[in-house]
Amino acid sequence: MSFREYRRALLTLGATMKKILSAVSAAFLAAVLVIPTYAQQPGERGYVDESVMPDGAIGERIQSLIATLNAGDPERLERFFEAEVTARFRDFAPMDAHQQAFGQTRRRWGAVTFHSIRTYDPPRADETVVVVNDSNFGAWRALTLQFDENDGHRISSVGFNDARTPTNVVEEELRAEDLLDQIERLVTRSCEVDVFSGTVVVASGNEVLYSHACGEASKRFHVANNLQTKFNLGSMNKMFTSVAVMQLVERGVISVEDPISKYVDETWLPAEMTERITVHHLLSHTSGLGSYFNDTYWESSRDLFRALDDYKPLIQGEELAFDPGTSWGYSNSGMFLLGVVIESATGEDYFEYIRENIYEPAGMVNSDSYEMDNPVENLAIGYDPNDSEWGYENNLYKHVIKGGPAGGGFSTVEDLHRFALALQGGTLLSPESLQVMWTDHADSNYGYGFSVEEIEGIGKVVGHGGGFPGLSSNLDILLDRDWIVTVMSNYGQAATPIAAGINGLIARVRAETG
Asked: Which fold has domain 176-236+363-507?
């Protein structure tokens, strides 16, 4: 059973499993069960951590799961599944698929130690969140569990998530002069244990204070990564698309209140749908549309998808998950259609428009939606660990052959730093437009094509992350601290813990006042 088939089986396991996975597009699942989202979801008011293991069967199950995960032993995992999980969970996939999914988590996280049980306000029904600390990144993680009380409290579902800092952890203040040494320690440790391959740039405004490159852009030819290596952006292209739309709004070419039927004809979606969806809905992920990474995509040749019109078979037939504007749901299809809006409103090719209006003004000389069958210089190939004799598999036959409005292009840490500076310096948009883009529009920690978050000790942070099998990238613009943190990796799920760790270190440095 492939990972994709395993993922499909998970999605049919029942309503409880669907609830855990529904917030995340399948495109972001590099290891099926490993869900790269925070254990606290947008809209939740808060959480409390208590470092006490539950009594009775639930506590015993949790301790057994942690010990089994740390052991990294396929035979022990098989015994665990026989004795500790429900038959439904055990039997939905072959044991080797379970072993691969758990094994990838063990390789990425290293050993984990129990820290706390996390409870939420409002409460999460029928769900136990166990916060652990991993040894590879020193990052906080969460085991999101459900138990069947009618079956001896056996485990009926497992999710592996990133987690925010526990409430009962008080981290010591860090001296500013020690910050870069701590960042260096975090990054080099992750490189040494081979859970990070990529590049990092940390800057205060336009001054780069720290940069690092490690790992290989090509394992086949043993080519090292460097600061000019082009890494896949994943969903980070959504920032460029949204900035382009807001440029057209500033010029009076588009209104965010326009129904997209004005730009998107019925060869894409029926008018009865597009007349209800506005540009605002697409920008804010409140359209109700889903993701074009569907069965048609996975079963098709990647060579079929290059120009925007080529994607019509992937989007045609989509149905709305909710009435536009009534909820929030991350949507690759919605953001892709903004590219169609740009082409229709300007009469220009989407890719040319982005080059001329985003990359060139920002000085982004190594960024584009490169076609993967061309010999682009210094471009990293994506990898994820597996159990083959080679230890890794590349993502060449999973990924799009050419990125687009919703993701899949390439950039460098230096170019993303330039992009952040161009945004803040007024090169790309007015301050008024930035304020609109960087406003949480649906109580979702998301604005227009940018994540928007208030982080304790840091303040307002905007940016975007990107993930897919074999890639992970992240840009954080710390508006209140005037820092820019850029991390790009050709390993799946590797950039997020590095960026979160760096942000956590910055938060421990007292902000200058006055």
From this structure: Beta-lactamase (3.40.710)
